[in-house]
Amino acid sequence: MDAKEWLGLQPTHNPMRWYLPVTEGICSGLGTLFGGCGLGAAIDALERVTERPVVWACAQYINYTKPPSVVDLDIRIDASGRTTTQARVTGQVGDTTIFIVNASLGSRDMAEEGQWITAPEVPLPVDCPPRQLRFDPGNSISSRLDMRMAIDEPGTGRTAFWVRMPEILEASAASLAVLGDFVPMGLGMAVTSEINSNSLDNTIRVMNIVPTKWVLADVRIEAVARGFGHGHIYLWAEDGTLMATASQSAMIRTWKGP
Question: CA 211, CA 197: separation in Å to the nearest integer?
């Protein structure tokens, strides 16, 4: 299946409106819509409507929503030129805004291109241990991901893990947006106390998407201050291609158990 099917995204008779039924499989362990799934759904809808690939997209998370709600995705094209489209998506449940996504889409032919950073040297996925969860994921998004810890050094601000989505046939901007929503996981490993956190935003910048079974999510936490954490994720293909980067800020709370 592709990302649209994986997320459960549905078109309507109006090409500028899409539906995202909120199911357990696209929710976090807290039972609410996983932010990366909202961003991924908006990206997939935008790419289909504009027939252009996403360059960058930024989601601002306003409210929570839980199953069995349905998020209405309303697309607005703010500007469309020969090679670039500027657009936004508002995700709402009834009159409640859940998230807002701003994005640029397009592709331009240029001889100049390059990659100036390299992936960390880590063991292959088969040689990395599975991620250990602190609670039963049930039917949440964690049950649909295969995650293997490649760099597991608590307190350093650096975490890396191999991850794959077994149901998805190939990587896409939408699927990478889902995988780019794991800065909170890195925050949990960076600090010394038990915490949980919720994302305020998720910004993804897409470079080169290449065929790859596994994605290496390289999480780098910059700082925690005033009750908020900030970090980046570099999303690498198995061959070392930098496919995308993502950044987030998240609100941190003391973990009080399930």
Answer: 32
Longest Cα–Cα distance of the chain, Å, equals: 54
**DSSP symbol at 209:** -
Contacts of 198 (CB under 8 A, 6+ apart): 30, 35, 61, 184, 250, 251, 253
Span 227-249, pLDDT tens digits: 999 999 999 999 999 999 999 99
3-state class of 40 per DSSP? Answer: helix
Joined together, the tokens standing for residue 122 give: 């880590």
Give the pairing of strands 158-164 and 10-11: unpaired
Closest CA to 89 of 55, 27, 41, 22: 41
pTM exceeds 0.85: yes
pLDDT at 169: 77
| SS3 per residue for 135-194 | CCCCCCHHHHCEEEEEEECCCCCEEEEEEECCCCCCCCHHHHHHHCCCHHHHHHHHCCCC
Distance separating alpha carbons of residues 141 and 134, to the nearest angstrom: 15
**Which of these, 80, 14, 68, 70, lies nearest to 45 by C-alpha position?**
14
The burial class, CB within 10 Å (0-12 / 13-18 / 19+), for 191 is middle
Helices (H), 33-91: 35-50
Token pair 């950044």 is found at 247
